[in-house]
Amino acid sequence: MRQGRGRALMAGLLCGVLIFALSGAAGASTYAVYIPLDSSIYNELETLNGLGYLQTYLDEIKPISRVEAARLTLEAGRNLEQSRRSDPLARSLIRTLRDQLSVEVGWLENDQEDNPPTMFRPVQRIEAQYLFSRGDPRQWRTSATNTPNDSGINATEATPLLPSNDGLPTAPGSNEIVRWSGWGGVSGFLAGYGEGSIAGPMTRSIKGVERLQLLGTGVVASFGNLALSVGTEEMWWGTGHFDALSQSDNSSPFPAVRVQSIHPLLLPWIFRYLGQFRYQLFFGQLDGERYFAHPWIDGQIFSFKPLPTFEFGFTHAIMFGGLHNNNYNFMGFLGRASALATGNPVGANTNSRAGIYLKFYFPSLRNLEVYQEILGEDNLTKELPPIGRFLPFLAVSYQGGFYLPRLTRDGMTDLRFEYALLEPNYSTHGDSLYWTYESQLMGDAMGPNATEVDIQAGRWLDLRDKLSADVFYTEQAPGYATAVAYPYEFYPYPLGKEHSGGVAFDFLRLPAPMRKLDGGLATLRARGAVEYVRALNYQAGASSVRFLLMCSLSFTPGWTGWTW
Question: Which of 124, 163, 178, 560 is the most buried (most CB within 10 A)?
Fold first, then answer.
């Protein structure tokens, strides 16, 4: 039954692959350089989309390329002019995006996207960040690494109150982080990009952690609208704003080969009625910090927008192989990689995730957006009943919410609500095929058996500065026994249910040209957060106050590099 359902799902996915392959990838090429997920470009595009000026932005697959962001900038400009509205906020955002993407906007406006020059930009962005934190991190230690009984999950929170930060290492107290990114392109189709970071306390080291980290780094060859990349690339799948249910950048990026569309496209024949379409496929390998060391992982996401007011999509990923778990031949490898044959628990097990998401727009209700995502996970430690016949997996988790871009009619104030219900077996498995990379959760940062609710209000103080306030509440239950019953587990004390509540303030100042620095762009971000936690890490009767203060200044030089 389990294999039959897996075959049915994968057959559908392979049909989707065949469809977009037949849609044609031939044609001229461009440079696909991906934008780091902490860039303000995503805030600007999200706001323009919420205000109703983008029709082809499918933000459930991130990161996007610089040239795609430039295309969306021009689309927003055209739609704003056609609307005949004054909308000073939208005009300011479009102007800012044009400053940030001046090279790519120039290609599109001069019809040079398919024939860009050879160029090298050694400094795309430099970011300096100061971070001060207090409070213990959350830990998930339901597995005993490198033992035959290595089941459950083994992970640690990187920085309290700062999820989805690429797993950058920090310690309690003061931390300093520097990030540097650059890129280059040759022959009009081959690009290389990279972002490195140095993170942690300046005055001391973090035991067992390297300060120097490589984040989004890779080589990309584009063939028409198809981009083939090799490297470590950030990932964010799905509709979530505060966290991603399927794939997030809570952990550092893992090495993989990826195939994806640069711009949305229309499928051929009757499938064109599915509307704007984007996709991403990857095949990679994870770390060795588990009993099944260095397992393989691959996945697919397909996103559609058949109507201006409706989007939907599917996600799927499978983890297999690794040391002690590779009892298969070449055909067995292909079967697991394609999910057509998902193996068995004896020497060749797999762990799969699959989900569906929906997003609805209501223009008459001040552009209200409502979204819902469901993710099922194949977990054989507890045979939980599947939901109907739609998801052929167990351990079903949910995430959803709404976003009201025009709480005030002028769009200067917005409101957001989001919830997550994470099943007890979320990200875990009966062996070491759990969803972490370098001891960081790869999906929602709350981990298994958790609930989170966020309510956030944001206000543009002027056309460049935005302040947001987020009130949140979380619960986590252990969902497993103590070390008395299971000697390999790390909880020799009575377990309690964790509760927490807190508030976070985020400030963003959009990039502003600096005349004294040759027109370079400076962006300011800041975050302050405090949280009260009862029974942190399930220690019954214990309580903790966690605190975070972060300030980040990034600079993009006005010099565009060398072109020839």
Answer: 124
Amino acid at 537: N
Collapsing DSSP to helix, strand or coil, 129 comes out as strand
What token pair was written down for 69? 């962001």
Name the phi and psi angles at 272, rounded to 5. -65, -20
CA distances from 226 to 67, 107, 184, 547 (A): 13, 18, 19, 44
Say which CATH class 2-563 falls into. mainly beta
Dihedrals phi, psi of 274, to nearest 5 degrees: -75, -10
3-state helix, strand, coil in the chain (%, to 5): 15, 40, 40
CB 326 within 8 A of CB 365: no
Number of helices (H), then strands (E), in the chain: 6, 26
CA distance 172 to 170: 7
